[in-house]
Specification:
The complex is a heterodimer of chains A (about 400) and B (about 325).
Chain A lengths: L2 E6 H12 L3 E4 L6 H12 L6 E4 L3 H14 L3 E2 L4 H16 L5 E6 L13 H5 L6 E5 L2 H16 L7 E6 L7 E6 L2 H8 L16 E2 L8 H11 L3 H16 L6 E4 L6 E4 L4 H14 L4 E6 L1 E3 L3 H8 L4 E6 L10 H10 L7 E6 L9 H17 L6 E3 L5
Helix pairs in contact in A: 1-2, 1-6, 3-4, 6-9, 10-13, 11-12
Chain B lengths: L6 H5 L17 H11 L5 E5 L3 H6 E2 L2 E2 L5 E3 L5 H17 L8 E7 L1 H5 L2 H9 L5 E6 L39 H6 L5 E5 L4 H13 L4 E6 L3 H4 L6 H10 L5 E5 L2 E6 L8 H4 L14 H21 L8
């Protein structure tokens, strides 16, 4: 049933798209996403999928077309990176506000200026309050698996929200890894037939999409919208349970790595978590009680669950691959801090910014952080709350 | 060929844009919309609108004036949005999930068409989506309070280019969007006016029967923005045609045809003098500006006559 292949992250996600066959895909080139839609376009050109592509003139139009296509009443996907996501920003809120289950891989890349095509998380972090569900992926396998699960989550009748699947530009998108493909039919069955909700193309029952709602009801509409997000974690876990049945692979709201008896911990997203796990193992062998937490569902952020998972630790470093300029902390740090702030028992928190614009995150960076956390746990004292690591002096 | 229009028959058709909308009294936009949807009465249609007067006034909270499926996304993307709807229609039709023959119409103002939505429109036309894009051109950003747009004519007074003691209103000529759209090489482009209702509706029907991208620019007076009487929308649109300020023509597969030639071309001041936005041009010492406007209109009209196919033109 399972096929083991050596492919890039983009190729794996393009293959997930081929297996799912969205009715409509919009695409606009941007590095490092381009390869994904190029590969998918070849499936379309060779008649391997039923998908209709819209090769738009900008990402703004890509997302606008996705909104139209999803409202029309079918399965819709697109993909982007960096500036492309920034250009879509206005329409991201409309896609979520109209409850349209669009799936969009975001191949994480730094934002300009200066222009840089390599990985960091400032693109997706800039869109974290746009009402999209965000699933983050450590490697090509997770990017593939998350893409398949994203359609089920987005299209769930309790949810009907758009989903971003984030994975690291170049590090994952362009590196060849061993991954396991599921059987085509298994994926199709897992994702299921698309169930339209209030389709625009239902001519006999005309619907108006995108009304004006002013001071009388806007507040209430937004309140009811916010309630939907409370249902997301349960659905994510249900879908993960079903996915395990067909793949044998386990997914949760986050991955907890050697945290149970840990005293210090690192919170980190995506590919750098892999490097960090190796270093955690190294320190565990030396008898250091260190663990790691890798969020998967970043939006909506599972505050309660993550707070509970980290509360017993003495010191935690949140590693952010994006800065929040203006004196604030990194975006992941802010959410981890919020998940802990009202707990009686909680660790000392520090924030380190790493890997911007594709700067390599090396094992020594994780070592440096673990060494520092050990000191903090021992003394209870923090020298610097937030700083950049891996900076060339 | 488009089925002939019969006023008596049309008067019995259901209006698919209902009363109760909140557009201003005397606004020409709902007249234009009703004409478009009436002309399209033979087909099921899906309409997309960009943000603007028509949009904010036609679907508020739980009320809608649209009896056809309608979508509003944002200001600059009616064409891209509708291209998504149309693509999904093709996808589902190919799969046998839809069997109806549905037509797709975008209706947007000049701000959402000439300016902020121009890229989205140009892209959708180039991609050859089967849709009709109608611009209801009221020559400024009326919804936000009469700011100049790429469609605002020269020397018009707007709130962002007010006629002052130094600058006499908008200093630039408007963009000739109809010709720009014709330059896309799409199968059908036309200019229409609600004063010539049969011409407008014929153009809509003709456009809907052609496969591929179509564009119609419709002159749409705005009494609030133009500082005119509330019952002058049709009079003003007629004068715009009769002065050749807004010639009625179509470009079908590259061939230009003037669909209405005024027997006697009226002087532009007949059109300008009724409008508060041009009031400053009638002050002493501004005669040259009026002359300049007349000269530009004459030159453009001559150019259009030359471009149009002589055997196709009717008197």
């Amino acid at each position: 049933m399972t096929k083991v292949v050596a492919v890039t992250g983009n190729e794996a996600v393009a293959n997930a798209f081929r297996q799912i066959e969205p009715d409509v895909c919009a695409a606009y080139p941007i590095t490092p996403q381009t390869e994904l839609m190029q590969r998918f376009a070849a499936f379309v050109s060779n008649g391997q999928v039923k998908t209709e592509m819209i090769l738009v003139e900008s990402e703004h139009s890509a997302m606008s077309a996705c909104v139209g296509a999803a409202a029309a009443g079918g399965r819709v996907a697109t993909a982007t990176s960096s500036q492309g996501l920034a250009l879509m920003w206005e329409i991201l809120f409309i896609a979520s506000g109209l409850r349209l289950p669009i799936v969009m891989p975001v191949v994480n890349r730094a934002l300009s200026a200066p222009i840089n095509i390599h990985c960091d998380h400032s693109d997706a972090m800039g869109a974290r309050d746009s009402g999209w569900i965000q699933l983050w992926s450590e490697n090509a396998q997770e990017a593939y698996d998350n893409t398949i699960q994203a359609f089920r989550i987005a299209e769930h009748m309790d949810i009907r929200l758009p989903v971003m699947v984030c994975y690291d530009g170049f590090i994952i998108s362009h590196s060849i890894e061993r991954i396991e493909y599921l059987d085509d039919e298994l994926v199709k069955k897992f994702v299921g037939e698309y169930k339209p909700l209030y389709p625009l193309l239902d001519i006999e029952h005309p619907k108006s999409y995108g009304p004006l709602i002013l001071t009388d009801l806007y507040h209430e509409v937004r309140k009811s919208h916010s309630e939907v997000y409370k249902k997301v974690p349960k659905v994510v876990l249900e879908v993960a349970k079903d996915f395990k049945k067909i793949s044998g692979r386990t997914y949760g709201l986050f991955e907890s790595y050697r945290l149970d008896d840990a005293e210090i911990g690192i919170v980190i997203l995506n590919s750098a978590a892999g490097t960090t796990k190796d270093v955690v193992d190294e320190y565990r062998e030396k008898g250091v009680k260190v663990g790691l937490l890798k969020p998967r569902l970043f939006r909506p952020f599972p505050y309660e669950e993550i707070g509970k998972e980290l509360s017993h630790l003495k010191a935690v470093c949140v590693l952010d691959r994006a800065d929040a300029f203006g004196g604030s902390f990194g975006p992941l740090y802010l959410d981890v801090a919020a998940s802990l702030c009202n707990l009686k028992e909680k660790p000392i928190l520090i924030n380190r910014i790493y890997g911007l614009g594709g700067r390599d995150y090396m094992p020594e960076h994780a070592q440096q952080v673990i060494e520092e956390l050990q000191k903090i746990a021992k003394t209870g004292k923090v020298k610097i709350l937030k700083e950049y690591i891996g900076v060339r002096e | 060929m488009a089925t002939p229009l019969n006023l008596k028959e049309l008067s019995n058709k259901e209006l698919r844009f209902t009363s109760g909308h909140r557009l201003c009294p005397g606004c020409a936009a709902p007249i234009v919309v009703k004409m478009i949807l009436l002309a399209a009465c033979d087909w099921p249609v899906v309409v997309a609108s960009s943000t603007g007067c028509l949009e904010v006034s036609s679907c508020i909270s739980t009320y809608t004036a649209w009896k056809v499926p309608w979508i509003h996304n944002a200001f600059e993307n009616a064409a891209a949005t509708l291209s998504g709807v149309e693509t999904m229609y093709r996808a589902l039709k190919k799969q046998g999930k839809i069997d109806k023959d549905i037509k797709f119409i975008a209706i947007s103002g000049d701000g959402g068409t000439y300016d902020i939505g121009f890229q989205s429109l140009s892209g959708a036309m180039e991609r050859w989506h089967d849709m009709l894009y109608v611009c209801y051109d009221n020559e400024a950003y009326m919804n936000t309070g009469i700011q100049r747009s790429g469609a605002t004519p020269i020397y018009a007074n707007t709130t962002t280019c007010p006629a002052g003691s130094v600058i006499p209103g908008k200093p630039q000529q408007r963009k000739d969007l109809t010709k720009i759209m014709a330059a896309h090489g799409i199968p059908y482009v036309a200019q229409a006016s609600p004063s010539h209702w049969a011409d407008l509706m014929k153009k809509v029907r003709k456009a809907l029967e052609i496969e591929g991208p179509k564009f119609i620019n419709v002159f749409t007076p705005c009494n609030r923005g133009w500082r005119t009487k509330t019952d002058d929308a049709i009079l003003l649109s007629r004068l715009a045609v009769e002065t050749c300020f807004w010639p009625l023509y179509e470009v079908e597969n590259g061939v230009t045809r003037i669909t209405f030639k005024p027997r006697e071309k009226k002087p532009i001041i007949d059109f300008l003098k009724l409008q508060g936005r041009f009031k400053h041009l009638f002050e002493p010492g501004k005669e040259k500006l009026l002359e300049q406007i007349q000269q530009t209109i004459d030159a453009n009209w001559e150019k259009l006559l030359k471009e149009s196919s002589p055997e196709e033109n009717k008197e």
